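Re: the pair you flagged

First of the two:
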Amino acid sequence: MLVIACSQETREREIANEPKTVSSPNEEEMVLIRGKVFNYADSSAISGAIIMLIGSAIGTITDDEGNFLINVPSENPKLAIAVEGFKTEKLVMKSDSVNYIYLIPNTADNMLPND
């Protein structure tokens, strides 16, 4: 068994030379949100849906299987999910599980803008 000993002074010098992480008081911890977007009419995955954190420029797009990952600065953020041909949804997402979102296709009956 090999034992290496170092003095307190040596360890203090090592600590002083280690890189330091500095965070501002307003900096929030980022949370990863996972989800999958589906067509409500036929349960098919929707690729190319835009996922945006409301009130920010943070966003992403769903992949070919409707999956998305987005890093956001809060535990349960409100996201807008939009894609041409479907009603836009604004939903609060959970950070501790996969979020399944079903978008309603636009029809003549539901073409009014939603908030």
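Second of the two:
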Amino acid sequence: MSSWTASWRHGGGSARIAVEVSHWAAIVPLVQAGAGVALLPTKMADDASRYGARVHATDPPLVQHVRLVWRGGALSPAVAALLDLARELDLVAEDPEPQPPVH
């Protein structure tokens, strides 16, 4: 269950998940076929509206939390510069302890 579904239910709402997909490209066609509704990033929602989907903004706006991800080991100069900039802009929390690789 997604975090928004858990939050929705915690707030007293109910949701029946009819379909879950792992590929973004499948969402709009499923909605257009009547499978239900979807929460989409703005760009995807704008694209969906061009194909006839009805699109409404959420109020209050929903926030998606994202993480920076990079490979372990030595960093390329470009990655190191991006991480330095993210730290300067206070976009990165303290460096976490390295996690062992999952195999």
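Residues 3-50 form one domain.

-B.
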